[in-house]
Amino acid sequence: MKIKHSLFTRREFLNGLLGGWLGALAATLLYPVIKFVFPPYREPDRVNLVFSDYQDMAPGAIKPFAWGAKPGYIKKKEDGSYLAFVGVCTHLDCTVSYKADQKKFYCACHDGWYDEYGKNIAGPPPKPLRRLHAEVEGENLVVKKEGVA
Amino acid sequence: MKAKNIGRSLAGWFEERLGLSAVMNFLRKKTVPLNKHTIWSYTGSAILLFFGVQVVTGIMLAFYYKPILEEANKSVARIMTEVPLGWIIRSVHFWSASAMIVTVFIHLFSIWMIKSYRKPRELTWMSGVLLLVVSLVFGFTGYLLPWDDLSLSATKVGTDIPRSIPIVGEWVTKFLRGGEDVTGDTLSRFFSFHISVLPLVLLLILAVHIYLIQKQGMSLPLSAEAGKEKQKELPFWPNFVYREVIVWLVLFGALITVAVFLPPSLGKAADLMAPAPKGIKPEWYFLFLFQTLKLFPGKILFINGDTIAVFLIVAAVVLFFFLPFLDNKPDRIKGKVITWLAWATIAYAIGMSVWSLLT
After folding, report:
1. CATH no., domain A46-145
2. Separation in Å, CA of B86 to nearest CA in chain A
3. Which of A6, A126, B24, B266 has a Cα-to-Cα distance from A143 of 20 to 30 A?
4. Could you tell me where the DSSP H helices lie in chain B?
5. Of B63, B82, B88, which is closest to A37 when you measure between CB atoms?
6. Cα(B294)–Cα(B316) distance, rounded to whole angstroms?
């Protein structure tokens, strides 16, 4: 049945109502499932390393550390200050290694190369390695996200 | 309405290849007898609802659960505290398990009393008894997985019971435990049973069970079969299905409500060397068996009391399995006695459970 000037019939209206309600019900059931499936991940705000472990590094040397669940590298610059990288290739997420003899980071997955400052120089990586801020605070070498005070 | 046309031609394409309209036509012709017993016809689909909830929440829990000695309790704690909405997923799994067992028992006793297992439905009943056993084993294996002191003790006791069966008992206990004692190997084994062996077995028997019900149609009560009263009928599709959906929604709402307000607890991680905690009890659906076992003295004449108890329980289950053959004259005095036995069984189970809870 369709009332004059109406855009839809009574059946269409009721079907829409029932369908919409079923859709809403399905959404309320699906929401907690999706929430559950994705565990919270929080990148660390800062990682405190024991400074004495890194104090004796030669200028230009590179040493690994853990940035939360990701691998990281600490580099001692020529002027004695520190710099940190997330050791994850920007191409497809493999862990990179540091080739000390060539002073380059290397990703074995697809032959990606970065220089000692993390700049992508050869192979598929589209971006430089992600940099982190590192500085000495008392007895700690503190690594933070870049731009975080 | 262009989308509608595309939908129709897609449906036609699949219909040409799958021929699923045969199923639909069958369901359209299927009817449900309408009488004072019709309410019990909803219990079967209610079990399916709770089973479906168990499958979905179980898969989800397995995403985070770790069936390893050192990790099991910790991973459940993590589900309860860190994983988004983890506590409610576990709570729903916990409560839905109990709800499934409750509906299984209601389903079974209603069939016993209406005597729907009469010829030719003996196999439907027997497959149903197997499904009950599988459901109880599901509960038993799931109870160990959080690996707290209660679940460890319950599993030690539960897996020790088969030992009193002559000849094979020792072997059964070793098989269940994966060795002499309950250890981390038992945990892995129970997890494997709980998430792969039992689901496969249950689905297989369930397929037979449902096939038989469709093949034979819904049974009529004794009085109707004798032609004393004229039967009303309800089309299965869509009338009965819509009513089932309403029942599902109510049950599902009740389940979620209980799960939100009464989440299950988690004891501290089980220590294999620690003495058993006081007052251990199995899950509620094993209480009457637990209490029955307690009643038997250590020795009766020259035989181990437990052996006799286990023997009696096994005999009861076997009789129960073959019930349709024992109840072969349902309208005679024997049939009436067997109906009263159903009531007696319910009274016994409830009485023993209450006794167990009070002591």
Report:
1. 2.102.10.10
2. 6
3. A126
4. 2-18, 21-29, 42-64, 72-81, 86-114, 122-144, 149-160, 169-177, 184-192, 198-216, 222-225, 241-261, 287-295, 305-321, 323-326, 333-358
5. B63
6. 17
- Least Cα distance to B115 among B356, B348, B325 occurs for B325
Structure tokens at B86: 């983890």
Interval B307-319: pLDDT, tens: 888 889 899 999 9
CA distance B98 to chain A (A): 21
Model pLDDT for residues A104-147, shown as the tens digit of each residue: 999 999 999 999 899 999 999 999 999 999 988 888 999 998 77
Partners of B82 on chain A (C-beta within 8 Å) are 39-40
Q: Where are the domains of chain A?
A: 1-40, 46-145
Contacts of B45 (CB under 8 A, 6+ apart): B244, B247, B248
Backbone angles phi, psi at A117, to 5 degrees: -100, 10
Write out chain A residues lying below 8 Å of B56, CB-based.
33
**φ and ψ at A101, to 5 degrees?**
-70, -30
- Rounded to whole angstroms, the Cα distance separating B169 from B159 reads 10
Put simply, the chain A residues between 37 and 76 with a CB less than 8 A from any chain B CB are: 37-40
C-alpha of A148 from chain center: 16
Model pTM score = 0.88
Identify the structural domains of chain B with CATH numbers, from first to last.
26-273 (1.20.810.10)
Q: Which amino acid is at B226?
A: A
Do B175 and B192 touch, CB atoms closer than 8 A? no
pLDDT tens per residue across span B210-227? 999 999 988 888 777 666
C-alpha pair distances (Å), B189 with each of A73, B70, B77, B147, B263: 42, 15, 21, 13, 26
CA A2 to chain centre: 57
